[in-house]
Design goal:
homotetramer; alpha/beta; Rossmann fold; Dihydrodipicolinate Reductase, domain 2; 14 strands; GFO_IDH_MocA-like_dom (chains A, B, C, D); oxidoreductase activity (chains A, B, C, D); Myo_inos_IolG (chains A, B, C, D); oxidoreductase (chains A, B, C, D); nucleotide binding (chains A, B, C, D)
């Protein structure tokens, strides 16, 4: 039974708390949030303790591992603190919005063997994972084209947007990682991007986009397209398509249940797609925790690590340079 | 180039005329209808001749083959006349509504080698045919259950119903034949049926049903279910499902085109199914003619013959006996 | 927090144990099995107690409710004991294989207000439930035909079969209940059935069938078809189709994830269906428990009750009479 | 009855011949090919005449209209000759591989009211057309993203490639036009492209690619992605996806028939997609001719005209500039 501490009790922190509690091999030992009320709400009438500070958590010998779900600006600090304290950490993405800070964090933890897992939950989605496994098994021969579609059901509020570092750092970051997961050893070396506030033109005032198409090339020329929108009226749209020399694979959208409707204007109509990431990736989040527990308990697990967080951000940086220059930009790590 | 005469220029006759004209190996040499205007409309400004009578057609040495699309009551007479005249005939189903008349016709043409093909067009539908071929190739092992769904888009008028001989002789007849086509050598030996006027309760006044479920058993116990309705608001519903010891096959519905709609209440919604048999089975009707031409020109073709028409009607008779008795009734040919 | 006792720690009992533990409003207080090792395995190192006997459970004031997952022959006894002890009970189906015993149990508990819920878990499947809700909301007008397909992935062992009371009492019982759930107030009044050992002909020696088609009629003539097989090589096949005067609804099969494969011989190929009921109906079992907890805590819940268990069995009895007589048999409750 | 002459009797010419003959409002009056045997094969034993030269066709007062399906290098000449002779022309794409030649042709026919239709057949595909109509009707609100997938089943031979002007001029040209068709008045103003010989690396020797991703932007920022491959092992892949502010539309692939297979490794598997354009776009080619006949007979028809051919080529030119420069290139017409 792994004693896990949770830092950050917002929407995604609450979800982590539920998952840790439901998983037989983990226990939610304590929680912390800068807003004490949020931490207390997560504790409820359970036996979870309230930690006075992150420092208290890192210092507590009873804590086996830490999940960081606090605001992005704190991620790098907590990763460094966790590693210094020898506590394995599962940290939400992104590591930081500032690439230099991420590089500094990388330097600070260099050489550690304390496990650092980044919260790229989509790698654990059974459909995406099955696609990756089929790819790796050579089921479609050589991969030539990869298309990742990722559209949120509805745009976040203006407050969120102002602190999120831009759609491509905030939202596309998942797709950069998912693409890298599918590509295996073959890293994107060049990025091109276009983006605009097409759904909410007012976003122009804060220099933000809500629709983007991003194309990447790997060294041998494989083509990757990421396709984002902040609003999909039919639900959270999450698809991966891998085209190969011997076949094609798609990881398709999922509905809540299997009801199909047949009427005068539509046949075999499915229900709207699962909203939102907590529903769509529920299984993925649970499998992510399972992998973290495996990692921490030394059973080995294939998980996204610090370097994956850094490389996804490097792709976002290149995409922003491409948005500004209008040309393909090399990826610098 | 086969010179074909057409008797009967109603809705289905007009469709046959178009198909004969569009097919490079056949020519619509002449047409006849008891309503001269209907025949003239089919002729139009083409070089098709008008025949004064069916007799004139059967006597005309320039006619290579005859398609009979006149009213049901004339079918058996024209089959007998065609055979007597040595003219191959493609006759619309059913042969007759009166089983005794069909048996008499059978006796009258016994021993002939003049080709007599019955218009069970669905055997030529590419999906149904592919299902049959996969079955015959052993793709799903032993067949154990067969389900044929056949629902018309909207009910015919009262006039039609009064002359059609009852839904099970008029509409289900196609499904009896399709089931036999799928079963191969293994004939249904027992039929049970339930039916009621569920969509239009007024049909009770003319002792007619508009929804039916019919279950048949073959000698080794294979189970066949036919499932009919005179009204399907989402379009013409035509499906076959074959369950086997090693897999399942379905011949699914078809839409006019591939548009899918995704919105707030429905995703991946297809358009309504093709209405009606002329649209849904367009390809089947064309392939039916191709087979008829092959048959007439001695190239061999697997087509439904007189005996198939008789056996489909025998199943309808057993179904009506079962409706009356409430029990499984043996099939008598 | 509801303290629940579990009687019976076989495959389905273990699943109930997991669900009770994972649900925040319930606690697995104690377990019992005639095989002590099975109960101990469920206890593991948890704080669940081992009960020496069912009687000890019924007598324990700390137990709020009981789940019965022991062998069928004990169900009616435990229901009676639970009711006598004032303990709400969720009992697996069927109540008993002997209809007379079920009637005796009905008499024994007559007049009680102790909640008795029968484990017809499929009523809680989100797809089936959404279909029922759409039906009840009049989305497809008047229901005219209902088709329930239920095929197990692979046949049970001979030992199981010898004690299961026949496929129609053991397996179809779920479909009888599901049909009744969809029909609402309109009860089937007549049943006809055909069945045979088509997959494993050896079953004839134990007078058992492995494929069946059962057709039921309600008083106003609605038509219901149940379609069963003990083996479906493509996975657990669980579908409901409801045909109405204004549209059609289908509750379709579910796959483990959304991977689609496209290759030289197949396109858009899904993965095999979820095997078996524990996987396919995982959500349904959890929602069933949620409803039970609601029921016990007086919050109201729409659940299958004793009378539903009795009526499903009455339909099975009529089906067996129909198998023997070859005719439609009236339903006697 | 429109008397149509056909110039060019290769694969696509033969298809046009069949369509002209099958269409009741047109007659294949005469044919010409530089290879007399090809023209004779099309004539067969029909009443179609053989024309000695294109000039003879343009001079023949009995010819109402001309279809040009000869090699690309002749297209502009024949368009000019047809216009000069006052003969309406349906010319296969592209107008020419050399943009300057296309501009010269434009100048040569400036001011004419002789109908010139370019063979962008995909505009007439019922699925693509229904998508366009739904878009135009505002069904998905404002269009924000458009994705056109176009993958040929297998690569053409080296000879074909050497004369085809590059994949983006030869194959993507259709997708440029299809995108413009969907966009309506809103023209792409900027193009970016990546391409590589990923399937057949040997193509590098002839400076050719076989996989490409092309992204375009319209003035208000709408995003368009074209996605091409010369080989799709699962069949001819032809899809359009339109994402809007209020919904999404997809024009999906089509199979030959509706057979679905269910087995131990795959469920609901469709058959491979229709191969190749003659099969997939059969209906589109027929509807294209119908529109041409409407246009010629003054009944009005919405067809792709010379300017559409020119603008599609201008997009290809910009794409090639982008391939070379690595940056977005403006579109110059």
């Amino acid at each position: 039974m792994l004693n896990i501490a949770l830092i950050g009790c917002g929407r995604i922190g609450r979800m982590h708390a539920e998952i840790v509690r439901a998983y037989p091999r983990s226990r939610l030992a304590c929680v912390h949030d800068v807003h004490a009320a949020a931490a207390e709400a997560v504790r409820g009438d359970s036996d979870t303790a309230l930690a006075e500070s992150p420092e208290a958590i890192f210092a507590d010998p009873a804590i086996d591992a830490v999940i960081v779900a606090s605001v992005t600006a704190t991620h790098a600090d907590y990763i460094e603190a966790a590693v210094a304290a020898g506590k394995p950490v599962l940290c939400e993405k992104p590591i930081d919005l500032d690439f230099a800070r991420v590089k500094a964090c990388e330097a600070a933890i260099a050489g550690t063997d304390v496990p650092v897992q980044i919260g790229f939950n989509r790698r654990f989605d059974p459909g995406h994972r099955a696609l990756r496994d089929a790819l790796a098994a050579g089921e479609i021969g050589k991969l030539v084209q990869l298309i990742v579609t990722s559209r949120d059901p509805s745009p976040p509020g203006r407050d969120y947007l102002l602190g999120a570092g831009g759609m491509i750092r905030d939202m596309t970051i998942h797709d950069f990682d998912l693409a890298r997961f599918m590509l295996g050893e073959d890293e994107p070396v060049e990025v091109w991007a276009t983006g605009a506030p097409l759904i909410d033109p007012d976003l122009r005032k804060i220099d933000e986009v809500d629709c983007a198409m991003i194309v990447m090339r790997t060294a041998p020329g494989r083509q990757v397209m990421l396709n984002n929108a902040r609003q999909a009226p039919y639900g959270y749209d999450q698809r991966v398509e891998a085209m190969g020399s011997a076949g094609m694979l798609q990881s398709a959208n999922r509905t809540e249940h299997g009801l199909l409707r047949f009427g005068a204007t539509a046949t075999a109509a499915q229900t709207p797609y699962l909203n939102f990431f907590i529903e769509r990736y529920r299984e993925a989040f649970a499998l992510q925790l399972e992998a973290f527990v495996d990692l921490v308990t030394g059973q080995g697990a294939e998980v996204p690590v610090f370097d994956d967080g850094l490389r996804a951000l490097a792709l976002a940086e290149a995409a922003y340079r491409a948005l500004a220059s209008g040309r393909s930009e090399p990826v610098t790590v």
